[in-house]
From TrEMBL:
Location(s) in or outside the cell: Cell membrane
Topology versus the membrane: Multi-pass membrane protein
Stored PANTHER family: MULTIDRUG EFFLUX PROTEIN YFMO (PTHR43683)
Protein name: MFS transporter
Alphabetically ordered keywords of this record: Membrane, Transmembrane, Transmembrane helix
Species of provenance: Streptomyces caelestis
Length: 412
């Protein structure tokens, strides 16, 4: 008998009984998400090794996410023409090449450029991974989406830990390690994943922009833009403020990632069921604003605790934003998600650039004040649009065509 209180029991087969193709794709997804937080604990080491400033090293995030944002307009165009399997393999190949090149960088400029190429590969891979998992998974789309969310949380948790363990010897080793792991993922997908059917309609690069003409989707995207500025201020700027060894910084962000995973997969769905998506999202954003404000003005121990605690709030936000973005409009889910991510990843590119600049212009506290304000602005958008979002969240829970159930583009 199925247990409705067990999130890993989703009906026939459940999340753990999956074919090899699904596990291969999910495993590669873990490594792909590891790449986001991999550099966190070694940012000070990279700055020291390449004789760079904190602002220059933070551009590793800016170049990565700027290319990721722009790539959202072409990932659907590519996958709808060459198919899901080839898109995954192309993305993985680019990550292997550019992650490896990152480890050979002789200057911060080279490293920033290689991270941009890495961002393109990651966008191609992650934008297609969930759709492929849904198409091949046993137990329906619910099991597939939960498996994908679990991969995201595990990757975000393990990325800083892997960066710390490898980076303690040299800041170059985490990049080489990622390239090796992604090469294994490439071989697994090549061996176990068959060709995926192409969509009946080819996607235009302009389709995601047209989807943003829907008021509900535009509201979610704008709110997520403000939220992502806060998110990546914590992720990219806090390591410099904590000023810890790679091991200690890695431990902090590992704990952060564990909370992110637990609250994303286990806690957020229960809160949504009880209070509704808009209330949960608005409340979580307000709490995040308070958390980063305390982080910026507290002592070192308080800053560490607030950094870890932010993982719980970020995990809740990620899940709720994903479901709203995929359900607020009548656009196909891959198109709606691409438009949503096109907007929000620009903030992920902006925060690592502006936070160190703001510190230079003012002091170390003000970047966190700005991050608190952007989180509050995200909550304000949710409050102003709460009626529309409540209605659209209800529509999102209605059954949709199976072909669209998992077709998302880097929804987290």
């Amino acid at each position: 008998m199925d247990n409705p209180n067990n999130p890993f029991d989703t009906g026939s087969g459940g999340i753990l009984r999956q074919p090899k193709s699904v596990w291969a794709t999910a495993g590669a997804s873990v490594v792909a998400f590891m790449g986001i937080g991999l550099v966190d604990p070694i940012l000070p080491s990279i700055a020291k090794g390449l004789d760079a400033t904190a602002g220059q090293v933070s551009l590793l995030f800016t170049s990565y996410f700027l290319i990721t944002a722009l790539a959202m307009l072409v990932t659907g165009f590519v996958s709808s023409r060459i198919g899901g399997r080839k898109t995954l393999l192309l993305g993985l190949a680019l990550v292997v090449v550019f992650a490896g090149l990152s480890g050979t960088s002789g200057s911060v400029g080279e490293l920033v450029g290689f991270r941009a190429g890495w961002g393109l590969g990651n966008a191609l891979f992650v934008s297609t991974a969930l759709a492929v998992i849904v198409g091949a998974a046993a137990g329906g789309s619910a099991a597939a989406i939960l498996l994908y969310e679990s991969a995201l949380g595990l990757g975000m948790a393990c990325g800083p830990l892997a960066g710390a363990l490898l980076g303690d010897a040299s800041w170059r080793y985490p990049f080489f390690g990622t390239a090796a792991l992604m090469a294994v993922g490439f071989l697994c997908i090549a061996a176990f994943l068959g060709e995926q059917p192409k969509p009946a309609r080819k996607t235009s690069p302009l389709d995601p922009l047209r989807a943003l003409g829907h008021g509900g989707l535009a509201s979610v995207a704008i709110s997520a833009f403000f939220y992502n500025y806060t998110f990546f201020t914590v992720l990219a700027f806090t390591p410099f403020v904590l000023d810890m060894s790679p091991y200690r910084s890695g431990a902090v962000f590992f704990a952060w990632g564990v909370l992110l995973a637990v609250f994303s997969v286990l806690v957020a769905p229960r809160l949504q069921k009880r209070f509704g998506s808009p209330k949960v999202l608005g409340g979580s954003l307000v709490l995040l604003a308070v958390d980063v404000l305390v982080l910026g003005y507290g002592d070192h121990t308080t800053a560490v605790l607030c950094t870890v605690l932010s993982g719980a709030l970020i995990g809740v936000n990620n899940t709720v934003y994903t479901e709203l973005a995929l359900g607020v409009s009548d656009a196909p889910r891959p198109v709606a998600s691409a438009g949503y991510n096109f907007v929000r990843w620009f903030a992920a590119a902006a925060a690592p650039f502006f936070a160190p600049k703001i510190e230079e212009w003012t002091d170390v506290h003000v970047p966190f004040v700005v991050a608190a304000v952007t989180a509050a602005l995200g909550a304000l958008v949710v409050v102003v649009r709460r009626r529309a979002l409540s209605h659209e969240a209800a529509v999102a829970r209605q059954p949709r065509h199976a072909a669209e159930d998992g077709a998302t583009a880097f929804a987290n």
